[in-house]
Specification:
This protein is an alpha/beta fold. The protein folds into two domains: 7-142, Rossmann fold (3-Layer(aba) Sandwich); 150-215, Winged helix-like DNA-binding domain superfamily/Winged helix DNA-binding domain (Arc Repressor Mutant, subunit A). Helix content is 53%, strand content 13%. It has eleven helices and six strands. It has helices spanning 16-29, 41-51, 67-77, 92-101, 113-124, 132-142, 150-158, 161-171, 176-183, 187-201, 206-215, and strands spanning 7-12, 32-38, 55-58, 82-87, 105-108, 129-130. Helix 2 (41-51) runs parallel beside helix 3 (67-77) and helix 8 (161-171) packs across helix 11. The radius of gyration is 18 Å and the shape is globular.
Length: 231
Amino acid sequence: MTSPSRITVLLAEDHSIVRQGLCALLNADGHFVIVGEAHDGREAVALARSLRPQVVLMDVAMPELNGMEAARQIFEFEPLTRVLILSAHADDEYVQRAVAMGVAGFLEKQTSAEILTKAIREVAAGRAYFSPRIARRMKDEAARPRDREGMRRVDAARLTSREAEVLQLVAEGSANKQIAGVLGISIKTVEKHRQHLMDKLNIHDTAGLTRHAIATGVIESSVQRTTADPA
């Protein structure tokens, strides 16, 4: 039985070698219990539902369902879940989207083991934690007026959870039939979601959706595959 003093952690990271390193680091610390490991956002949501860890340590760039959307879906059924983002992508837009969504903290993957373990303890205790460089940028950003780049963040936020899932799968090169299979919905429903997100974003072709997904951090540019036929 898990000791009450040890913090339960779910790892969500698509690179096996990184997950193994994180497991070794946290297990060696002695204050954490790894209750599950997810290789994509969809699995992270399912494991968070079933395991109910105190902290989800979440990468952003993952296949099928990225970490931001996975966090949003986790919060839908458990608003108090503590999600700590650990990502190689920590520019201002990523961080601001994460904060607006309700994540408890954001760390860069270059962070030290000491900061990582401290961050997990802090968020498990109900406090927010951001790596020092991100915290400094957030403080500077708070003093600046909003610019037109904020419109892009609003567009991303207006998508429903299902539309965001469809956007990522389209941008990754999946055809409508494949998307229907992954999401367990009909092809007609996929087409409807696809049309809705195109209307909301004022983008009317697959290439444009892919560029938008890359620009807003839904996928990495390296993830993009050859665009599939939409049928």
